[in-house]
Amino acid sequence: MPIAPVQLQEQSITPSRPSTGARLSCQRETTRHKCSNPDCLKKALSRGRCFEHGGGVQCANPECNKRAQRKGLCRGHGGFKR
User: Fold this and answer.
1) Which alpha helices (DSSP H) does 1-82 contain, by range?
2) What PANTHER family is this protein classified in (predicted)?
3) CA atoms of 46 and 55, how far apart (whole Å)
4) Count of structural domains, the chain
5) Residues of the chain whose pLDDT is less than 70?
6) DSSP letter at 78?
7) Domain range for 34
8) What are phi and psi of 49, to 5 degrees?
9) Cβ atoms < 10 Å from Cβ of 78
10) 31 part of a folded domain
11) Residues facing 34 on adjacent strands
């Protein structure tokens, strides 16, 4: 008794989700927004602004205008680990 041939369906070899890895990190890096200040060419940290124009987190010390590194403090005021 002869066996009837079975027709196979074609399957897509492309993944349903984008792969994670180096490619994704490169895409993320190129899509960073610029500072909302029209004269500034730096990348935005938060609130659409670079650090100089009010983005990011500043040191909690009221006399300091440096960027916070850890625990809300800059390196000079104890915001680093020895």
Assistant:
1) 22-30
2) EMB|CAB89363.1
3) 5
4) 1
5) 1, 8-31, 82
6) T
7) 23-82
8) -130, 155
9) 13
10) yes
11) 43
